[in-house]
Amino acid sequence: MSKRKAFPLRIDPKLYEVLEKWAEDELRSVNAQIEVILKDAAKKAKRWKNES
Fold it and tell me: I need a labelling partner for 2 at 20 to 30 A (CA). Which of 10, 36, 51, 52 fits?
């Protein structure tokens, strides 16, 4: 398994509530949900290269 980079994140409490509910709906942690959202955005922006 690849290593993960840990860093503090300041986020608007209302946005956190939205992410928390979204993560719950998809059976993920908030951290995992944020990672999925960011990875999808990076792919859409063609900044994510597929790992082969």
Answer: 10
